[in-house]
Amino acid sequence: GGALSTTGLRPGVRQYQAGDVAGLRACLEDWLTNPGALGEAATQVQQAARSLRSWQSTAIDFQRALEDLLPPPDPTTFDSDWLALREPADHLARNKRLLSEVLVWAEQDYCHPGVLSGHHAPPLLVVDLGTGTGSNARYLVPAMTVPQRWVLLDQDEHLLALAGERLQHLDVPLETHACHLNAKRLAGQIPDGTRLITASALIDLMSEDWLEALAVAATRHNAGVFIVLSYAGNVELSPADQDDDWIRETVNEHQHNDKGTGAALGPSATNYLKQQLELRDYQVSVAPSPWRLTPAQSALQRALLEGWRDAVMQQSPSERQRAERWFGLRLKQADEQSLSIRVEHEDLFARPARDGVA
Ligand SMILES: C[S@@+](CC[C@H](N)C(=O)[O-])C[C@H]1O[C@@H](n2cnc3c(N)ncnc32)[C@H](O)[C@@H]1O
């Protein structure tokens, strides 16, 4: 019935007149008694499905058609759909060796004062900076083996409200606070008693001043610092293309634009924070946490490519044609599920000098 009777006219699809149960029965009987024909139909229909247009591709066409008519996107706001799309890839990419270092440290940190005083220690207070919809807490809360309490900070009230809803099922006390985290006030914005300061997919947006303020704030609170999934500047696409390096360099230049706290450090953020923490006697480890996007992750690939596309168009408007060729090719490959993308990220864990642990 309806439009399907036209759009369904594809290899591998059998149709019957709506209401004609005998006709339907004949189709089914044919396939059930002839597995070879059923297998062939399944293969054909899977191939045909690849060329089907989705509502998402139509929405993207609209967005592209409107692109020149709308103001550029605000670099300080993040779309909850984008955060939801990237969450599984983020969780998979996180460096598990570094995570276990954090878990061991958290257990020692939690147990130490309790053992000394003979009293129950209070839950470990963890603060998540730039929490978005709470991806970092969704990953860390179940991984951590000690009693915890969380404070989630973000400037975006809408994302924070989603975080509150989507973390409700976790059995730990957590509070959300809307605030713009800024270099001058950061130490005061992090609550007293914080033992672990964490953030995911955040620090590449931040300026030198902000990262220095983070190191100062962590030292003042004598807290551990666990910062994951910071963009590290390297991207590899397979199959390769002659303009891959140009696109990567242009995206990396765009990374340094101001995202609300001054010129962002982009791919240099982790190294800069490491130096700032080491200056304050922290022991710092950095480990890779790359996204390895397979051809099947075409929705995330598409969203990532669209983000790069905005960045390249803003950064090099005079090279529009060159960029259009590359993005046209890459988006087509993503849709056809013939593209792999590797994006380098880094995780950092820093333990304070005065650990309280012998
Ligand atoms: C890329 S998103 C990452 C969100 C989340 N941590 C995740 O991994 O899904 C960056 C988040 O940082 C927040 N943010 C950026 N700059 C901020 C600032 N100066 N103060 C507070 N929040 C900020 C944004 O609102 C956004 O939610």
Describe, in plain words, how this protein is organized in 3D.
- This protein is of the alpha/beta class.
- It folds into 2 domains: 4-52, no CATH class; 80-351, Rossmann fold (3-Layer(aba) Sandwich).
- The chain is 48% helix and 16% strand.
- It has 14 helices and 8 strands.
- It has helices spanning 4-7, 21-32, 35-50, 55-66, 80-93, 96-117, 135-143, 157-166, 186-189, 208-221, 244-254, 269-279, 298-315, 320-335, and strands at 124-129, 148-154, 174-178, 196-200, 224-238, 283-288, 291-293, 340-351.
- Strands 1, 2, 3, 4, 5, 6, 7 and 8 form an 8-stranded mixed sheet that branches.
- Strand 2, helix 8 (157-166) and strand 3 form a beta-alpha-beta unit.
- The longest helix has 22 residues, at 96-117.
- It is globular.
- The mean pLDDT is 92.
- The structure holds S-adenosylmethionine.
- S-adenosylmethionine (SAM) is lined by residues 76, 78, 83, 130-132, 135-136, 154-156, 159, 180-181, 200-202, 205, 260-261.
CATH architecture of the largest domain: 3-Layer(aba) Sandwich
Tertiary shape: globular
Portion in helices: 40-55%
CATH class of the largest domain: Alpha Beta
In percent terms, what proportion of residues is strand? 15-25%
How many strands appear in the DSSP assignment?
A: 8
Radius of gyration: 25 Å
Low-confidence runs: none
Mean pLDDT across all amino acids:
92
CATH-defined superfamily of the largest domain: Vaccinia Virus protein VP39
Order of helices and strands: HHHHHHEHEHEHEHEHHEEHHE
Number of helices: 14
Distance between the termini: 74 Å
Largest sheet: 8 strands, mixed
Task: Give the total of domains.
Answer: 2
CATH topology of the largest domain: Rossmann fold
Bound small molecules, by name, code or SMILES, are: S-adenosylmethionine
